[in-house]
Amino acid sequence: MVTLVTDPSALQILWFALVAVLWIGYFFLEGFDYGVAMLLPILPKGDAARKETERRVMINTIGPVWDGNEVWLLTAGGATFAAFPGWYSTLFSGLYLPLLLVLLGLIVRGVSFEYRAKHNDTRWHATFDWCATIGSFIIVLVLGVGFANFVAGMPVALAGNGVTWVMTGSFWSLFSWYGLLGGVLFVALFATHGAVFLSLKTDGEIRERARGFASKSGLVTLVLLLAYVLGLQLAFPASDNPWVNGLAVTACWIVGVLSVVALAVAWVFNSKGREGWSFIFTGVAILTMLVMVFIKIYGTLGFDSSAAATPLDMTTASSSPMTLQIMSLAALVFVPIVLCYQAWSYWVFRRRLSNKNIPVVPQFLAAKPKNA
Amino acid sequence: MEDAVSIARWQFGITTVYHFLFVPITIATSMLVAIMQTMWRRTGHEKWLKLTKFYGKLFLINFAAGVVTGIVQEFQFGMNWSEYSRFVGDIFGAPLALEALLAFFLESTFIGLWIFGWGRLNPKVHLASIYLAAIGTMISAVFILAANSWMQNPVGAIYRNGRAEMADFGAVLTNPVFLATFPHQLAACYMVAGGLISGIAGWHLWRASRAAKGLRVSKKTLPAGQVVTAEDSIREASTWRTGMRFGAITMLIASLCVIVSGDILGKEMVKVQPMKMAAAEALYQTESPADFSLLTIGTLDGSKEVFSIKIPGLTSFLSHGNFSERVQGINDLEKAYAEHGFTRDDGTKLALQQAYASQLEQYGLSSVAPIIPVTYWSFRLMMGLGMLGAAISVVMLWVTRKNKPAPTGRWWPVMCAALLFLPLAANSFGWIFTEMGRQPWIVAGVLPTSAAVSPGVSAAAVLFSLIAFTLVYAAIACVVLFLFVKYIRLGLPDVSNHSDDIIDGDAPLSFAY
């Protein structure tokens, strides 16, 4: 494969890095609220009333923050659109059906959290709980398959007009062994991340059960993550990518190994009951795993342009210098502000929740006017 | 390919009109609830707290639906309209990214803080949260309207590297179409929220009036077994009166702003998209002066009129500010396009329109007129339904002046219900007019809509997603309506146990899902 590498501008490199940061922020933050939703049918135990209370404990740990977490995804999408229109347009149209599934998942799980509490009925609750669980599961699974395909490289060709790239692979070609491995890994990884988050944010039996779950799922995830890292390094090594030179190839190896180590450390902390440290290290594992992926797709953006006369890459997909400058200025000013107030909101809701904190009737329903 | 274009357009139309039912409620109700909460803090009067919580709940039911349907909007540009995204991304992408960064983070984080912050934040910070969320929704409107205005009037751009590129970001943000659209849309949002607040309060007030006179008021049995009785309604009457008048006054002021800004916007539209005004009036021949028809019954193909009611010179006035000036007709604009390509009313072109003109031959556009019955009727429905709503708010304020009790007749709840839906429908028709009136262009005078769809996506895939979204959206509509009706009937919440103390330790939270 001979692909011409054009020197990218500093701003193009910056925006590639920023897109990576936004995806990492999204997976780190929303990753655990996907995990919490996936665990809704698994963790609660006991009679119906107790299960209901425990499910509400779980939902309330993410209730105030899930929507803000999801904005990381919207910003990643928006930043890709603004900084690399060629990337955004080819990827989003090329992955049409997978993205449709992600959207449907985002819709049903988003309304679930909000509408569940607004009507007191067992079937109503059960319906929305399943929407939250299945929706979150589908999103994580599809994104896992998608990211594995970025790693493997998705073939693109130029359309008839000579300026538009289209993806040429079929929907089913996404489900290669590596694609499937990526999907399963993401489900296991974020379920574990969510369980560790719950053990950090709850108290009582649910906290113990979350820890127990994480110690089991953590082992499975560790095996999957190891396979995913080795799969990337051996089957789709970064050295295949003409944009990635010797030092970066080594870096790709290092972060991959680090992610496996970080997950192992998280597992050890979890079994010792050090929930805060365990959560930090599942976070580090997610971060380093994604850094590895983004090093692998640096420049090529995860496309295989060998069949295209002009490659679709970081320079050809990019916006003009003026747009990148404007966007850089905005990011420089507003990203720190956003980080501050979002961190502050986590601090406001820092308390652990237990069954005792949950009012008998959701406050939304305690609305009956008092009879004189 | 034609199929893919029309299915993608239907999908955009359905998902966008649906999303935009929630947007105006979100934008304006968030601010009005913030004002209610401020009134409570300022006056200490419990009725304001009740209104804050009551309308706050309706706002949140609406907000959740708005959030999830909004995600589809950002994704579908890339999914269905990838050629559009590639072509305009250098300009259009920036406002979308800025919207997420500056607006979405702000609103989502501070809505979360406001919802769950009762009993966890100190009162001032809690109040500031809802203001910040409301400001976030407005910032969001700024960027998305700037992006849309650029599609109507693509300023500050040049044609380079096979696409539109940014030449002047300042020009995009000071686009005269945007400067007129923003106040027009913002005020239209306040009409919707004002109508929602006064309509619901008006209905409860009517129940109270009937109960006070001993007339029959149906007992509402709620799903949870709770009952709102006539006595409840009477006791709450003064709170509802406050809510009703607050909403109606908001609506009346907003209506005046909509009219003034709409007039300015209309004149800008004539300058940059003369065809849209001709299509709004179904004006085939250039006329000076041009009349405005309130109602036209024509032959089925629309080419000949059978009966009409006309206001002399009004279209001239709407277009140029006087009752005599020339307004270009559809046929003449079509002829002008065939001869000189797309031009503005004064015969000039923008840099991008000028530069891209040579590329247009490949698309072979035979007509540059939109579908006239759609533009003609959506323009009238926008104005007519909006004005009817404004008139109802005047009637409501007049009837309940000087503390007069609300009427007990059956016409009153009909008016209240109309107030909920008229401004919302006017908003929808306004957007249908704006977007359909731009056709056959996706970027006015530059890129045809038919050239903007994703080249690699089959019509079958788009159809599948159209069906999937429509079904899921229909299900959400059922849930939202069910919850709205439930909480509207449930009436004002009990706030007697409200406390500003921060709750800690094992005590139940004052707010939890």
Oligomer: heterodimer
What proportion of the residues of chain A form beta strands (DSSP E)? under 5%
Mean pLDDT of chain A: 91
Distance between the termini of chain A: 82 Å
Order of helices and strands of chain B: HHHHEEHHEEHHHEEHHHHHEEH
| H/E series of chain A | HHHHHHEEHHHHEH
Radius of gyration of chain A: 22 Å
Number of helices of chain B: 15
Described by the principal axes of the CA atoms, the overall outline of chain A is: globular
**Could you describe the largest sheet of chain B, including whether it forms a barrel?**
2 strands, antiparallel
Strand % of chain B is: 5-15%
Mean pLDDT of chain B: 90
Biggest beta sheet summary of chain A: 3 strands, mixed
Describe this structure as you would to a colleague.
Chain A has helices spanning 10-39, 48-62, 66-83, 85-94, 96-116, 122-152, 177-201, 205-235, 246-271, 275-296, 321-348, and strands at residues 154-158, 165-167, 303-304. By secondary structure, chain A is mainly α. Chain A has a three-stranded mixed β-sheet with strand order 2-1-3. In chain A, helix 1 packs across helix 10 (275-296), helix 6 packs across helix 7 and helix 8 packs antiparallel against helix 9 (246-271). The longest helix of chain A has 31 residues, at 122-152. The relative contact order of chain A is 0.15. Chain B has a two-stranded antiparallel sheet with strand order 1-2. Chain B has a two-stranded antiparallel ribbon with strand order 3-4. Chain B has 513 residues and is mainly alpha-helical. Chain B has helices at residues 2-43, 46-80, 82-116, 123-152, 169-173, 176-212, 230-235, 237-272, 274-281, 314-320, 330-340, 351-356, 372-399, 411-438, 459-490, and strands at 157-160, 163-166, 220-221, 227-228, 292-298, 305-311, 441-443, 447-448. Chain B contains 15 helices and eight strands. The mean pLDDT of chain B is 90. Chains A and B meet through helix 2, helix 3, helix 4, helix 5 and helix 11 of A and helix 2, helix 3, strand 2, helix 7 and helix 15 of B.
